[in-house]
Amino acid sequence: MIIDQLHLVNFKNYRESSFSFSPDLNFIYGENGNGKTNILEAISILCYTKSFLMNSESDCLKYGEEAFEIQGIFKNRVESKNKVSLVYKKENNERQLLSDGEKVSKTNEYIGRFPLVVLSPYDLKLTMGLQQERRRNFDLLISQVSKVYLNDLRKYQKIIKQKNSLLKENTISKRYSYNELKELIGIWNYELLDLAVKIMLRRLDFTEEFRSYMNSSFSRISGLRYIPVIIYQSDLLDLNGINGFDDLKNLLQKILDEKLDTEIKRGASLVGPHRDSYVFCMDKNGENFEMRSFASQGEHKSFVVSLKLSEFDYINENLKHTNTGKPILLLDDVFSELDKNRIKRISEFINEFNQVFITSTDIEHLKILKNDLRDTKSFHIMNGSSEMIV
Questions:
Q1: Dihedrals φ, ψ of 230, to 5°?
Q2: Where are the alpha helices (DSSP H) in 61-130?
Q3: 294-317 pLDDT tens trace
Q4: Torsion 230-235-238-243 (CA) sign
Q5: What angle do CA 165, 166, 168 make, to 5 degrees?
Q6: 34 in helix, strand or coil?
């Protein structure tokens, strides 16, 4: 999959701009604050239906304007084109996503149609940040290749939201007696059981599948003999003797019953995959060291870069029998965070990837990359406008 053209109207600092991209490397250069990342953000909105920076649509509207529009033309591996546009109107906070002129009403069916991997300075905090950021990262990755997982996840999240709303509201209003609330919560717990177990088992399978991709990428990026380790951690899965769907479901039901009083007191759901975590470790001579506590700054960077490049390989492998093709890769100001050796290692095999977008403040990075790619387009961004770099 590639994005062939992009048109922006009143998006952030762009009044109206059009871009025609290379199917290989697109190098976007300019000083900070001029709008380089905004181009990548617009692409991510068309692919993910939301910004990779987690900005709301209102945050993306050019100051003083009432609406913005993003249009993109994508081409898959068989050269079939798809025109996608997202229009946001400030009035009523309304957004509309169109694919070839038809309104997209179910984003579950849309996610994964234009696969994308993003690596930004924000992602370099994954090894040290909050667990919810890691869950969000892997949920998005798995969802791009599995609509079943995405559907289960969305249904589960909806139930948890409703359950939390009930718990929180009752701590304030005391609308229901203890027995009434217990019965209502029991209904939601019954609804989420199967979904929760399917999500946990899929995540567990994913960590096993992802291991070989991660090992390969980390070796190439860092050159270190250490082995990166990703552990899916859940109180339910840590217990010995728990094997398979039925065992896990029975155990989850038991723990939900045991935690009911605590959930009522705290006004929040405390059990389920929304509370689980991914632990990043480094295997050094057979012993696991958690990244957050024991890794150097260089190891943190190598781990996250390897993680994102592994995501590309994972998506590519899972979609190789479809017309979708390889994902698009966005590298936002990543080179500024890496030393020369890591930049050189990435540049040596970046031509193995599909369409790549790289933003940078340093024009010297273009000289390194141009040596390895045949078709390169370069854009100099200045205050929401662009010009080609020869």
A1: -120, 120
A2: 107-110
A3: 888 888 888 999 999 999 999 999
A4: negative
A5: 65
A6: coil
Report the amino acid identity of residue 8: L
Look over the chain and give the mean of its residue pLDDT values, rounded to a whole number. Answer: 89
Q: Are the C-beta atoms of 124 and 332 separated by less than 8 Å?
A: no
Spatial distance between the Cα atoms of 30 and 17, rounded to a whole number of angstroms: 16
Place of tokens 């001579």: 285
In-domain check, residue 194: no
- The residue type of 357 is F
Question: What's the pTM?
Answer: 0.91
156 in any annotated domain: no
Asked if 74 and 80 count as a contact pair (C-beta separation under 8 A), the reply is no
Specify the CATH number for the domain of residue 109. Answer: 3.40.50.300
| Sign (positive or negative) of CA dihedral 172, 175, 179, 183 | negative
Report helix, strand or coil for 223.
coil
In a domain, 223, yes or no: no
Q: Say what the pLDDT of residue 47 is.
A: 96
Q: Give the CA-trace dihedral at 292, 283, 214, 205, to 10 degrees.
A: -90
- The whole-number average pLDDT for the span 84-105 is 93
Q: Which of 104, 119, 156 is nearest to 40 (CA)?
A: 119
Report the number of distinct structural domains present in the chain.
1
Residue 168: strand, helix, or coil:
helix
- Domain range for 345 is 1-115+319-390
Over 90: is that where the pLDDT of 167 sits? yes
Q: Is residue 346 part of a domain?
A: yes
Amino acid at 150: L
Helix (H) or strand (E) holding 184: helix 178-222
- Whether pLDDT at 211 is above 90: yes
Spatial separation of the C-alpha atoms in residues 230 and 276, rounded to whole Å:
13
Burial of 293 per CB tally in 10 Å (0-12, 13-18, 19+): exposed
Please, which residues bridge with residue 14 across strands?
A: 11
Q: Which residues of 128-166 are buried (b: 16+ CB within 10 A; e: fewer)?
A: eeeeeebbebbbbbbbbbbeebbebbbbbbebbeebbeb
Nearest to 16 by CA among 59, 53, 71, 58: 71
User: What are 123-137's pLDDT values in tens digits?
Assistant: 878 888 889 999 999
